[in-house]
# Entry
Amino acid sequence: MDHIRIGIGVSSIGRFLPLIGEAAGLFEKENIAVEIVNRQDEEKVVEDIAAQTTPVGTPNAPSLIFSRLEGTDLVIVGGVLNRPAFYLAAESTSITGKADLKGKRIGINQPRRMAGMVMLALLRRWDFNIQRDLTLVDLGLNDKSLEALRAKEIDAALLPPEKAFLAEHEGFRLVADSLDLDCHWVPLATTRRFLRENLDLVARVASIYKESIRVFQSDPDTTLKEIRRWLPALANKPHVLEKCYRLFAEQFEPALTPSLSAIQSILAEVALQDPRAGEIEPASLIANVL
# Structure
């Protein structure tokens, strides 16, 4: 039997495919003993993949690109989510649309991370000048945006689906989303060195991710049971849980194919912070194992 440790960066449904696959017996079917490690930090997942502590994992795309710029050999072997699914949640009485953000306090986490990068991209798209038109409130490395909204420390924030739909349930208004941004969000990644030495194992893991997407989409009972297990805060909120399920069922890439245009777009976003990213060819980040 082969053994593999798989790293996930955050407790998000977008990272739960190996948990779904394990619950459905897919790893056992492939004769793979799997350990799934939730690092609760995107940067640590990248570090663990590079060090082969967890040689396969799902970081966010910017973290992978920044690591490549620092000299790692991380490579994308599957496109789990080719578009970012974030929602702008806002205080509901004074903000009814994007135009009402002018003069307001907008929470943002680190710009190097996906939500922060997407927030900046959306503000540019909406023609806001971040120095003049609104106030960005730095919420640091660990995203505390929903807590800051509840405490009225900010007026709006970009949230992942689980927190966004929970915020909506609590009375906040969802005024916009990032679904039409063609920016790669969640890759399945390893290193080129590990791939060279373990091609068959990585290919089987990728095939399990692909099959897990099919299970996710076709077997909601198994899927929702696992989501409730790993996100207990949603277990007693069936409406929120159902909205999250429907969103990810639609957004997962069933063929696990990375989108070159989406990778090009996220490279362009990273290049605004580190121009060297503009020199990377999207295809050079991908290794086809399926």
In short: The chain is about 45% helix and 20% strand. The beta strands are 2-8, 32-38, 56-58, 74-81, 87-90, 105-108, 135-138, 156-159, 173-177, 186-191.
